[in-house]
Each structure stands twice: as C-alpha cells, then as structure tokens.
Design goal:
Elements: E1 5-8, H1 14-29, H2 37-40, H3 43-55, E2 63-67, E3 70-79, E4 92-99, H4 108-116, E5 123-128, H5 132-140, E6 144-151, E7 157-163
Parallel strand pairs: 4-5
Antiparallel strand pairs: 1-2, 2-3, 3-4, 5-7, 6-7
Helix pairs in contact: 1-3
Length: 165
C-alpha cells in the first residue's frame, strides 16, 4: 500500500467520491434510517450530484484521499451555514469527511481534516449524536460539543462541535 496523499477533487473523481459517500452513509446510518431510504439514496444518485458539484463553481473545498491510485476518502469544508435555529458560531465549517472503513485508523481522516481545516483554524461541524466513533475522532482533533442540537430531515439528531475562538 502506498502512502495516502490528499489532492483537490476533480470531475473524474465523481464516481469514486459517490462510492465513498454512499458507503460511508450505509456504514454509519443503516441502523438509523428506514430501509426505504436506501431505495432513493443510491450510488448513482450521489454520482450525479457529485458530477454537477465538481463540474461547476461549487463552494467549499472538496479534497480526496488517494491510496494506490484509488479514492478512499474525501472531505469538504466551507463557510459555516448554521442549522435550523442555531446560527453559526465559527466562520468555517467541516461539511463532510468520509473514509472507507477498511482505511480507518491509519491517519487518512486526520490528513483530510488538516488539509481542509488546518488545526489552528477555528471551525465548527455537525455530527450525528449516535456516531461515537466520529465524535471521538473530532474530539481528538480539538473539537468539543457546545450544546447545540438539531434534528435533520431524516430524524437524525446532530450535535455541533466547535474548536478555536
């Protein structure tokens, strides 16, 4: 296995990012979402959305992690957006960070996080309350829950985590 590297996402990465994104959702949210959800939330649907986002002037900074010429993770950050009734408390927000499970625990998530939001940059993120692995990862990287909560359109409870002033 080659050393993981991080680079900007390209339009040609849309297929691979869709697989990572969908697989991450399945691995993380299967127990939280009804079976009908997966009839609509497919790799093909995510692929089309990523093609549009990567071929346009999409906001955020999508980066991919590559191992042996395969995209194994991605991260995206941008201006903090806030959630229903919870305005942003930092300028920057981690919008997404996913790594294929077979590549967990070897530093790829940290590489992606540091690349899209360097450690000295104050930031916020929203994470599923029922995702203890992700919460521990973000805590290790200086984020702490600030008490804000949000129930998304899929009835998943999210909590906000912040770092820096």
């Amino acid at each position: 296995m080659t050393e993981p590297r991080v680079r900007p996402a390209m339009v040609d990465d849309a297929d691979a990012i869709a697989v990572v994104h969908h697989t991450g959702w399945v691995q993380t949210y299967s127990d939280l979402l009804p079976a009908e959800h997966w009839e609509r939330d497919t790799v093909a649907r995510r692929r089309e959305r990523w093609k549009v986002q990567l071929s346009g002037e999409a906001s955020g900074y999508p980066l991919v992690a590559v191992v042996d010429q395969q995209v194994v993770g991605f991260a995206r950050a941008g201006a903090a957006r806030g959630k229903d009734g919870a305005p942003p408390v930092r300028a920057d927000e981690l919008w997404a960070l996913y790594v294929l499970a077979e590549h967990h625990g070897i530093g790829i998530g940290a590489l992606l996080l540091d690349a899209v939001l360097p450690p000295q940059r104050p930031a916020e993120l929203w994470v599923a309350e029922a995702n203890p692995r992700a919460r521990r990862f973000y805590e290790k990287h200086g984020f702490a829950a600030d008490g804000a909560r949000f129930v998304d359109g899929l009835d998943i409870v999210e909590i906000r985590m912040v770092r820096g002033l």
